[in-house]
Amino acid sequence: MKRPFIGLPTTTDPTTGDFYLRREYAEALHKAGATPVYLPLIPEIDYIRHVIAECDALVLTGSRSDVDPRRYGTTRHPRLRTVDLRRDEMDALLLQASEERRMPVLAICYGVQSLNVYRGGTLIQDIPSQVENPVLHEAPRGSPIAHHDIEIKPDSILRELAGSRRTRVNSRHHQAIDRPGHGLEPVAWASDGVIEAVLHTAGAQLILGVQWHPELSYDEDPFSRRLLAWFVAEAKRGRSSAGRR
User: Fold this and answer.
1) Contact (Cβ atoms closer than 8 angstroms) between residue 36 and residue 54
2) Main-chain phi, psi angles of 78, to 5 degrees
3) What is the three-class DSSP state of 226?
4) Which of 83, 112, 119, 189 would bridge 107 by S-S if both were Cys, CB 3.0 to 4.6 A apart?
5) How far apart are CA 113 and CA 97, in angstroms?
6) CA-CA distance, 193 to 131, in Å (whole number)?
């Protein structure tokens, strides 16, 4: 079977306006058996429906920006960082188009926050100032990426992929899910109570959101490899059932 095409939205460089995406997303997905396709930030539904029609799955990537709090009905926290309105709108339209096609979605870091807001949930705007006794979810800039343990819900696909109820993940975020959106069930937590993963449970569409970065740890971490291999297999299954290419 041919490699499935997986769409990945890019991000915006705030200093130049250039679209870009860190290479590890594409490299890890290619190693896992997919053909990654970068999607420029053109938040127009006709364009998005056209390009999504050529994809088999969607990965909502991370971003250095924060989701605009107006999208979930609240005011800006003093520690909110740069907002990228174009990326916010792009994600919402991609999720709409993927929902129409019941396309598998994997949402990573900023991507899971964007997913949660799209489905009517809210966010913790700044973990260090809004969570009591937080673990280190984001190391200082220039330091090695932070790592911490997560507890995984029994009888979930994530627990099966991890091979245990507790594992260690990398971490690079200062925001997180507060109130889960419609149909999103929390399935993993950090020791400070921060939600680390959600699974879509309301309907036929497969959606998994993780707050960490499996693409960064793909080469050395078996859990990351199993997670991405599972997602690529789901993308292949969806293409096969649709009789595409």
Assistant:
1) no
2) -55, -25
3) helix
4) 112
5) 18
6) 9
CATH code at position 148? 3.40.50.880
The tokens of 124 are what?
Answer: 């913790």
Helix (H, G, I), strand (E, B) or coil at 67: coil
The tens place of each residue's pLDDT in the chain, 245 residues long, gives 699 999 999 999 999 999 999 999 999 999 999 999 999 999 999 999 999 999 999 999 999 999 999 999 999 999 999 999 999 999 999 999 999 999 999 999 999 999 999 999 999 999 999 999 999 999 998 888 999 999 999 999 999 999 999 999 999 999 999 999 999 999 999 999 999 999 998 889 999 999 999 999 999 999 999 999 999 999 999 765 554 55
The domain of 227 spans: 5-242
| Closest to 9 measured CA to CA, from 38, 46, 43 | 38
Q: Which residue has the tokens 């899971």?
A: 112
122: amino acid identity, one letter:
T
Radius of gyration of the chain (CA): 17
Work out how many domains the chain is built from and give that number. 1
Distance CA 66, CA 127 (A): 13
- In the structure encoding, which two tokens stand for residue 142, read together? 């220039």
Which amino acid, residue 198? Answer: V
Cut 0.90: pTM above it: yes
Among 191, 65, 80, CA closest to 134: 191
| Alpha carbon distances (Å) from 9 to 103, 155, 237 | 15, 31, 22
Separation between Cα atoms, residue 33 and residue 127, nearest integer Å: 35
